[in-house]
Amino acid sequence: MMRGRFAPSPTGPLHVGNLRTALAAWLSARSQHGGFLVRMDDLDPVTSSPVHAAGQLADLDALGLIHDGAVVSQSARFDLYREAITRLDAQGLVYSCFCTRREIREAAAAPHGAPLPDGAYPGTCRSITAAQRRDHERAGRPMALRLLTHGEVVAFDDVVYGRFEGAVDDVVLQRNDGVPAYNLATVVDDHLQGVTEVVRGDDLLSSTPRQIHLQRLLGFDQPVHAHVPLVLGADGERLAKRHGAVTLADMAAARVDVTGVLAMLGHSIGLCDVDEPVTADGLVERFRWADVPRDPWTFRPAS
Ligand code: GLU
């Protein structure tokens, strides 16, 4: 069965960019008569909050983006992610890394040939000796777990972007504070939840080769990917709070009701006029990925 999902990080209210991605994910699933799941990417206990999670779910409901089944929270699933790390470890593909962010930044600045993903790790701790490892442990340096890769390059066909190819790096599997890492958790959950279509913001496009590589190593099916272009403010910068009414609550305060928000979002993905009285349900039949623009959307808030 086709099954889509939306997986926000509950670190603040959803802004129009997130809402637009959620709408596309939901419309795609429903137009294929598929299921639609919501999952909270709340791995990070410092930045995530149940208050934001509840607010985000209320916003999705308000727009009529109804999900199936219970909302899954990644914070409650660490055992499942660790199990996957154990399976990779059994393949000899996990190593300890003691690098600080700064060390990684400096090493990554060195020139390289392949198109590496954002924040790529240069592999410094790959060949650490037992003595060095002991020194690090004795010094109390926190330890992350990384995936051992061998310069694999992964290509896939994104529904919006088209063909994308990227190199895979030694991605973090478990952070040095013990929290399982995003890429691993996403792959494990998409598999366990039977997700067949991943729709998300295109800031994650460069991480997708890493996730496909992990899926292959763990024997999971590869979902279809659709990366929705990001949203810019009128000044051409990435959309942020300072651009004005960017959340549903902000827009309500500026007297843009849910219908108005849906019309604006629907218009931005080629489905309706900007002032057409639409509902989410009413847009399902009109939805086509081919109409979703590949270029960023410039958002001009109501004033
Ligand atoms: N939680 C991520 C975000 O809000 C999306 C992760 C995903 O869809 O894989 O940007």
Order of helices and strands: EHEHEHEHHEEEEHEHEEHHHE
Structural class: alpha/beta
Instruction: Estimate the global geometry from the Cα principal axes.
Output: elongated
Helical content class: 25-40%
| Mean pLDDT across residues | 94
Number of helices: 10
- The termini sit apart by 43 Å
The low-pLDDT segments are none
Number of strands: 12
Describe the protein's architecture and organization:
The chain is an alpha/beta fold and 303 residues long. Helix content is 34%, strand content 16%. The protein has helices at 16-31, 50-63, 78-90, 101-108, 130-138, 182-192, 208-218, 248-253, 258-268, 280-283, and strands at 3-6, 35-40, 72-73, 94-97, 144-147, 153-158, 162-167, 172-174, 197-201, 224-228, 231-232, 297-298. A five-stranded parallel sheet has the order 3-2-1-9-10, covered by helices on one side. Strand 1 (3-6), helix 1 and strand 2 (35-40) form a beta-alpha-beta unit. The longest helix is centred in the first third of the chain and has 16 residues, at 16-31. The radius of gyration is 20 Å and the shape is elongated. The model has no long low-confidence stretch (mean pLDDT 94). Bound molecules: glutamic acid (GLU). Glutamic acid binds next to strand 9.
Q: What is the gist of this entry?
A:
This protein has 303 residues and is α/β, with parallel strands linked by helices. It is built from ten helices and twelve strands. The mean pLDDT is 94.
